[in-house]
Write a structure and sequence with these properties.
Jelly Rolls, about 15% helix, 2 domains, 6-stranded antiparallel sheet, 7 helices, mainly beta
C-alpha cells in the first residue's frame, strides 16, 4: 500500500453578500471568478461540500472516500470509532468586508433533534483587522429571554450585544449558544465542528440586490441562545517562539499557534489524531517518512494523517501557523 503523506485540498470558495477580496490579496488564493468571496472552506466533510485532494497519489479523491479506505490511519483510531466516515472538523478562512449577520448555533442535542446534525462550537483567530474593526461575542450585561425579545421587537438588539475591538492575533472561543457576529474589515481563521447549522437573528436591516431581506430564524434561535453574561469574551494566551502555544482546548478540538524561525521536531506518537496546519504567515516545509518533503506557503492548509507521527517543520522564513487536532 502507498504510504500516506501530508494532504492538501482544493479550497471551496463561497460567494457572500458580505465578502471581499482579502482571501486573494492576503492569502494568495485565486478567487477571480467570485465578486465577493466571503469564505474559503479549506477542509470540509460537510455533505455537498466535501473537500477533494489536490496533491499526491490520492489526488481527486474526496475526504470521505479516503477516510472510508484508510480509516484510523487518516483520522486516528478513536476518532474513527466516534465519527466513522464523517470528518469531524470544518476549517475555514473568512473575509468580512461587511458585517456578518448576528447569529447563534445550536448545541449537539438541539441540532440532532431538529436537523439530525452536529451542533456548532467554533473559534476564531484574527489574521488581520482594519483600524477600529469590531466583532460581537455575547451580551454586554445580564439579560433574560424577556429583555432579549423586547430589544428584538424594538430593533434595538445591538444595545445589549458585546462589541469587541480586535487586532491581529486576537482569539475568540464561540461555544454553541453564544450570540456572535464578525464585523467588517476582519480576516480570520475559523475552526469548528462539522456542521452548517446557523440561526440568523439580525441582519442589519439590509436587503439583497432584489430588495429582499435574508431569512431570520428568530424562534429557532430562542431555544439555542445562552443568555449568560461573562466578564471577558476574548481568549488570553501566552505565545512562545519555536514551540506550540495553546490557544483553545475543548472537547471538539485543540488549537495551538506555532511561530517559528528554526526547525521544529514534532512527535505525535501519543496523539491518535490527524493534525491540521493553517499557514498564516511565511512558508515552510514538512519533512516526513524520513526524507520526503512538502512545501507549504501562506494561505495553504494541510492535513497530516494520524500515521505520520514524527515530522520536521522547516521554515523558509519567519512563519506562523495554527496547529489543530482532537485530543
Amino acid at each position: 500500500m502507498n504510504k500516506l503523506y501530508p494532504l492538501k485540498f482544493k479550497p471551496i470558495y463561497k460567494e457572500k453578500i458580505w465578502g471581499g477580496k482579502k482571501i486573494n490579496t492576503i492569502l494568495n488564493k485565486n478567487i477571480s471568478n467570485l465578486k465577493n468571496c466571503g469564505e474559503s472552506w479549506e477542509i470540509s466533510g460537510v455533505d455537498g461540500d466535501i473537500s477533494v485532494v489536490e496533491n499526491g497519489f490520492l489526488k481527486d479523491n474526496n475526504l470521505q472516500e479516503i477516510v472510508e479506505v484508510y480509516m484510523g490511519d487518516i483520522v486516528g483510531d478513536k476518532i474513527f470509532e466516534q465519527f466513522g466516515h464523517e470528518f469531524p472538523l470544518l476549517i475555514k478562512f473568512i473575509d468580512a468586508h461587511d458585517n456578518l449577520s448576528v447569529q447563534v448555533h445550536p448545541n449537539d442535542e438541539l441540532a440532532e433533534e431538529r436537523h439530525y446534525a452536529n451542533g456548532k462550537t467554533e473559534m476564531w483567530y484574527i489574521i488581520s483587522a482594519e483600524k477600529n474593526a469590531q466583532l460581537i461575542s455575547g451580551f454586554n450585561k445580564e439579560i433574560n429571554k424577556e429583555i432579549y425579545l423586547k430589544h428584538l421587537k424594538n430593533n434595538t438588539l445591538t444595545k445589549i450585544l458585546n462589541f469587541e475591538n480586535v487586532k491581529t492575533g486576537d482569539v475568540f472561543f464561540i461555544p454553541a449558544g453564544r450570540v456572535h457576529a464578525t464585523g467588517n474589515g476582519i480576516l480570520l481563521s475559523e475552526i469548528q465542528q462539522t456542521s452548517d447549522v446557523t440561526y440568523r437573528i439580525f441582519d442589519w436591516n439590509r436587503k439583497n440586490s432584489n430588495g429582499k431581506s435574508r431569512e431570520l430564524h428568530t424562534d429557532m434561535a430562542l431555544d439555542a441562545l445562552d443568555f449568560t453574561h461573562y466578564k471577558d469574551y476574548k481568549t488570553k494566551y501566552t505565545k512562545k517562539i519555536n514551540e506550540s502555544s495553546n490557544l483553545i482546548n475543548c472537547q471538539y478540538f485543540t488549537t495551538n499557534i506555532i511561530e517559528f524561525d528554526k526547525e521544529i521536531e514534532k512527535d505525535y506518537n501519543l496523539l491518535d489524531s490527524f493534525v491540521i496546519y493553517m499557514c498564516l504567515e511565511g512558508s515552510y516545509s514538512i519533512r516526513y517518512n524520513e526524507n520526503n518533503e512538502i512545501k507549504i506557503i501562506k494561505g495553504e492548509t494541510v492535513l497530516l494523517p494520524a500515521v505520520l507521527e514524527n515530522i520536521l517543520l522547516i521554515p523558509s522564513e519567519q512563519t506562523k501557523l495554527l496547529e489543530v487536532y482532537i485530543k
